[in-house]
Specification:
Strand content: under 5%
Largest sheet: none
Shape: rod-shaped
Number of domains: 1
Number of helices: 1
Oligomer: single chain
Number of strands: 0
Distance between the termini: 70 Å
Structural class: mainly alpha
Length: 49
């Protein structure tokens, strides 16, 4: 393997790791957002009681 192709494969690996991290952050953000919405609904429901 040449040095150039080694560098290329390394940068590809880094990019895929970053993409995976981004997807995790997005899905975690969605979960967090969902929790916040649920808590707001619960608070509103408690006000009516």
């Amino acid at each position: 393997m040449t040095i150039a192709s080694e560098r290329t494969s390394r940068s590809y690996a880094t990019v895929s790791i970053l993409k995976n991290q981004e997807e995790l952050n997005v899905s975690n953000g969605r979960k967090h957002g969902q929790k916040m919405i649920e808590q707001k609904i619960i608070k509103k429901n408690n006000q009516f009681i």
